Amino acid sequence: PPSPLSSAFAAVLDSVLEHARPEASGAVATYIPELAVQDPEQLGIALASVRGTVHEAGDSAAEFTIQSVSKPFVFALALEQHGLAEVMRHVGLEPSGEPFNAISLDEQTGRPLNPMINAGAIVSSSLIRGDSAEEKFQVIGAGLSAFAGRSLDVDEAVFESEVATGDRNRALAYLARSAGTLASTSDVATTAYFRQCAVNVNARDLAIMAATLAGGGVNPVTRERVVREDVARWTTAVMTSCGMYDASGEWLVRVGLPAKSGVGGGIAALQPEQFGIGTFSPRLDARGNSVRGISMLESLSERHGLHMLEHR
Ligand code: GLN
Predict the structure, then answer these.
(1) Per annotation, catalytic residue among 49, 60, 68, 145
(2) Binding-site residues for substrate
(3) What are the residues whose beta carbons fall under 8 Å from the beta carbon of 44, sequence distance 6 or more?
(4) Hey, where are the domains in the chain?
(5) Where, in this chain's numbering, is substrate bound (predicted)?
(6) What is the mean pLDDT of residues 47-74?
(7) Nearest-angstrom CA–CA distance, 297 and 17
(8) pLDDT digits (tens, 9 = 90+) for 271-311
């Protein structure tokens, strides 16, 4: 039978989910045509504690593509392979205050401003070991799966759709390449990046992935160490400053949890040493962040005093 604590958690998640449900604003992403076919009404949330208990509500098992929620995890894999100094030769750590697909390159250094926007994420993917996109994606896919604690697969239709419409991302890769900060050819980097964005996850996976960062790099369900503790800390720091793009500052004030959003409708958020949360709702605001995902995380944080700067 479920413990009293676990039914209390379930009631909390149900309550924030039902509070968010009527919110009808926003729209499903259409710039990647295959994302437009999603059912906009889907709504799910999951919370995984660093002790490995998972609580879920709504469509927490419904799959969607991870999109930009992959960025911090692939950044972590690049850090694990190369260390902070080497990664920082290629990508910066400063909030851009710009949209996710901004043409972003620091003029002095030729680096994208941070790894949470597309330009920087493509550079992270280029840094992953392997000569071909296939080799790089083998590492990326295995790494994302280790964060989630199960074997994740690729939505081939979404992948093809990104390949067919990804010229802006190719432009970002060429720009970084011309500035000397891309670590592979632009074709290899973008192909690996498009595949990484098309990985299928559900809200439960995102909760466990985030909880792995919260637990200092150890997956709380499988107990596998996925990345080093310093890598988990650096990654969480960048999520704190840059994870919600040009809404990151307001997010930090209102919600106060390191987080990362994706245009598939997912958000992963965490409280270090405590838990990870995954949310899923496909309708996005103008910045590409899930409207009801934000709503759920905002009310969870507010009602339960989860802000990282809460006086305890
Ligand atoms: N694959 C998407 C893109 O590159 C990811 C963007 C996002 O989720 N914000 O445009």
Answers:
(1) 68
(2) 68, 118, 162, 169, 193, 245, 263
(3) 17, 56, 57, 58, 59, 60, 61, 62, 202, 203, 278, 279, 280, 281
(4) 4-66+200-304, 70-197
(5) 68, 118, 162, 169, 193, 245, 263
(6) 98
(7) 9
(8) 999 999 999 999 999 999 999 999 999 999 999 999 999 98
The per-residue pLDDT for range 73-89, each reduced to its tens digit, is 999 999 999 999 999 99
**Is 0.95 surpassed by the pTM of this model?**
yes
For the domain made up of 4-66+200-304, the CATH class stated in words is alpha beta
Among 79, 132, 89, which Cα is nearest to 112's?
Answer: 89
CATH of segment(s) 70-197 = 3.40.710.10
Distance 28 CA to ligand 1 centre (A): 13
The helix or strand, by DSSP H or E, that contains position 266, with its residue range, turns out to be strand 266-271
Looking at residue 3, what is its pLDDT? 65
**Ligand 1 pocket, mutate which of 263, 284, 285 (most atoms under 8 A from CB):** 263
Q: Is 289 in the pocket of ligand 1 (CB under 6 A)?
A: no
| Domains 4-66+200-304 and 70-197 equal at CATH topology level | yes
Tokens standing for residue 206? 């995102």
Reported as a pLDDT band with limits 50, 70 and 90, residue 107 is: confident
**Token digits of residue 50:** 């660093």
